[in-house]
Write a structure and sequence with these properties.
This protein is an alpha/beta fold. 54% of the residues lie in helices and 10% in strands. It has two domains: 5-162, Glutaredoxin; 167-299, Serine Threonine Protein Phosphatase 5, Tetratricopeptide repeat (Alpha Horseshoe), CATH 1.25.40.
Length: 300
């Protein structure tokens, strides 16, 4: 595969002694699996000798990941065991992220016959995703890798094919890909008008706001202006850029530091921006939990 990555360094031991059929017997039944550094050999490398493995590198705080992953899971169930979808949380598995040379997420790779190659970064529409999967299956077949796994086991992930994706969510997703943030925002707002508690729409709207703001920023100019710690608008811009780089901890720290020295309306604006970024990353994320404590200390 073009740009292939040697996965030998990722194995916790030397080349597996078991044959592919043994790997399949030992692996969890189903087409979608969560993978860690401890079981990467078994769930990805060994399995890739019989079926191609599509690897989805994601993080809880990543907005585009929350749009792409459901599509990947849906297609994994639809293809009924012709490939395995391996999901890797990059925050929990930094070594795997490093070995895949991930620059941004979501990042998707194919592993065929113990070798990996990059497929794409960022979220893509379902139609394009289907084309990518078909190409992976074609390449795998050329290498004699065209088996299947048991996709009929009653695992939670396999049930995803029965779920319906809200067409407004799909419209928002496609609009984001085109850079049409206004349309994406309107789609999420329509969802919220129907269900104000829709967490997917709430997070999506916050994500669109971040993407739209970041698209207008010049990183060099932001860094220069943000050297003035009392330029609070630039501090907010800098926090946005940190999140876009996949570094929410730094982004939160920028805003909390600014909140400590700001007052009045400026302080309120900084706090509002920080809370919005919490939504983008996700309330359950450890960095958000820590930043909430730091925010409370800064305010009181």
């Amino acid at each position: 595969m073009r740009g292939a990555i040697d996965l030998g360094a990722l194995a916790q031991s030397k080349k597996a002694q078991s044959v592919a059929s043994q790997a399949l017997a030992n692996a969890p039944a189903g087409v979608v699996v969560d993978v860690s550094e401890q079981d990467f050999q078994q769930k990805v490398i060994d399995i890739s000798k019989t079926v191609p493995v599509i690897v989805d590198l994601w993080a809880e705080w990543c907005g585009p990941c929350k749009q792409l992953s459901p599509l990947l899971e849906k297609l994994a169930a639809e293809y009924k065991g012709r490939f395995v979808l391996a999901k890797i949380d990059v925050d929990a598995n930094p070594r795997l992220s490093q070995m895949f040379q991930v620059q941004s997420i979501p990042a998707v790779f194919a592993v065929i016959g113990e070798s990996a190659g990059p497929l794409f970064q960022g979220a893509i529409p379902e139609a394009e995703l289907r084309q990518v999967i078909e190409e992976v299956l074609r390449i795998a077949a050329e290498q004699g890798i065209n088996g299947t796994i048991n996709a009929d086991a009653p695992i939670e992930e396999a049930q995803v094919e029965e779920e319906k994706i809200d067409p407004r969510l799909e419209a928002a997703f496609m609009a984001i890909e085109k850079g049409d943030f206004a349309t994406a925002s309107n789609s999420y707002k329509e969802m919220l008008n129907q269900n104000p508690g829709d967490q997917v729409a709430i997070a999506g709207l916050a994500q669109v706001g971040l993407l739209e703001r970041a698209s207008k920023l010049n990183p060099n100019e932001v860094l220069k202006k943000a050297s003035d710690r009392k330029d609070f608008a630039s501090q907010m811009d800098l926090a946005d850029l940190e999140l876009m780089k996949g570094n929410p901890q730094a982004g939160f720290a920028v805003l909390i530091s600014a909140i400590k020295i700001a007052s009045g309306e400026e302080r309120d604006n900084l706090r509002a921006r920080l809370l919005e970024l919490f939504v983008v990353v996700g309330d359950s994320d450890p960095e958000v939990i820590k930043a909430r404590r730091d925010l409370a200390s800064a305010l009181f």
